[in-house]
Amino acid sequence: MTEPMIATIRLLVVSREPQILRSLWSIGETNSWQLETAASGWDAMERVQSGVAPDLLLLDLPRGDGDSLHILRWLRRLRPELRVLVLCHPEDGGRKKEATRLGAEDVLVRPFTDEQLERLIRKHLSEPENGATGMVSEDIEQLGHEAFFVSASPIMQRLRAQAELLAQADVPVLILGEGGSGRSTVARLIHKLSVRSGFRFLKVDCGAVPGDMLEEELFGSDRPFASNGHRANPGKFEVGEKGTIFLDEITEMPLSLQERLLQILHDKTLVKPGSDRPVPVDVHILAATSVNVDRALAEKKLREDLYYRLSAFTVHVPPLRQRRDEIAALLRHLMHKLARHYGLPPREFSPNVLDACQDYAWPGNVNELETFVKRYLVAGDQELSFPETNATSVNGNGKVHLPLTLKFAAAPAAHDGNGESQSGQKSLKSLVQSVKCEAEKNAIGAALERTGWNRKAAARLLEVSYRTLLYKIEQYHMTTADRFISPMPGERLVLQGQGLKNGKVS
Fold it and tell me: Which of 4, 8, 401, 403 has the fewest Cβ atoms within 10 angstroms?
């Protein structure tokens, strides 16, 4: 019987220090790793580009040579999946954050022992690609700690190829797609594949910030104090210098700001509110919307001249129902990601659940899928029931779709000593909880509307922490387009869960 072939681990080391090379040769020989050396970062980049990429690259920074870090940006562009470890001297230890930002997996500062170096290498060789065991690494591409791009279906593979071309062109891009389909993920992918990947990626949700605050957030301000002097407040276009700005829900941006954005696209300069001095702008602008563009143009929510400027290069992100080939990969990846986040063991999906997920339409797209995985991580499918076929809906193609809420199955009615069923008690508790949540959502919404969606001011009004308010806004998926019922004056608001303090809206 033929022995199975074991793939050789290949390490590429960029170093000129004999001590480091001797240590790595010894470590490599002990572990049967294949070790290759490169004299410089540019030499390493040529090898990575022309041959088979190594499993791990170790970049040893010469003493006081911080410029060598920039090779990381080019390596990440050539091989986004390549793991790079940086070794540096103590005086360069302060550059750890910059090295991580440019793409390094980890940074090891001298002095260190051979055991520490070997342990670090083993850690990054043994980590499952993208944190999900049993998954094809080529299908999942990490774009940061949270974001990832899945190309398990032909339609998404074509989308990735399109994103790679647009990343090299450095032109404005309009990204279209339903809510939750992954517009932000595509924007991050374009940024990561571009030469700007070593600089910042900034996202602005134009629908979540009132117009006056959005103007200052984007363009900054240079307004005079009540006393002497000026307060210079840089906006996103200045902070994101040489990086990428992603303007989500561009149709929610006031027309006056759309005009200023058009001027930036045309002149590559901006003038801050309160100033008449033009400031040069060097950013890659990506915009996106989930609404029908033709309707937005007809309703004057989007300037035609701005649309034509942005739409020369357009990306359409397909909804999840059009890329069912990747649902299984998404389910497993999200399960492992969320299990790590919450410190729980990951669950396997039963065949019934996988079949139902493949058949479901997922109107909320990937966001809805992630919410489902959170519930499944906690509850599994032992107490979950799927609706009967006659409770399903049929789309225009005649495809049956389950309303996949995976409701808890009703247990047989058990009666307590008073003759009241426990299921009835649970139903009553659920009803009360639902009413409380609705009242809480309305109270938060009323406070946000009263403060013009200034979330910090709303948190003070509700007498809760800013973090608590942000959590609740995310929990209830609240947007400026929602309408809320104001509570009665003086009515108490009790925020549900996590022992949060009371607040009231006066």
Answer: 4
Tens digits of per-residue pLDDT, 339-368?
877 777 888 888 888 888 888 889 999 999
Residue 148 has pLDDT above 70, yes or no: yes
For residue 439, what are the CA distances in angstroms to 334, 357, 442? Answer: 32, 32, 5
Task: Assess contact for 243 and 200: CB atoms under 8 A.
Answer: yes
> Which residues on adjacent β-strands are paired with residue 332?
none
pLDDT for 320 beyond 90:
yes
DSSP class of 384 = B
The domain spanning residue 474 has which CATH number?
1.10.10
Pair 176, 249 in one domain: yes
Closest by CA to 185, choosing from 340, 371, 365, is 365
Burial of 208 by CB count in 10 Å (0-12 exposed, 13-18 middle, 19+ buried)?
A: middle
The residue type of 48 is V
Long-range Cβ contacts of 337-345 (<8 Å, 24+ apart): 337/131, 337/132, 337/148, 338/370, 338/373, 338/374, 338/377, 339/377, 340/131, 342/377, 344/377, 344/378
Which of 280, 300, 320 finishes a domain?
A: 320
Q: What is the DSSP letter of 497?
A: S
* Coil vs helix vs strand at 280: strand
**How many helices, marked H, and strands, marked E, lie in the chain?**
18, 20
Closest CA to 408 of 380, 441, 438, 444: 380
Taking the model in full, what pTM does it have? 0.55
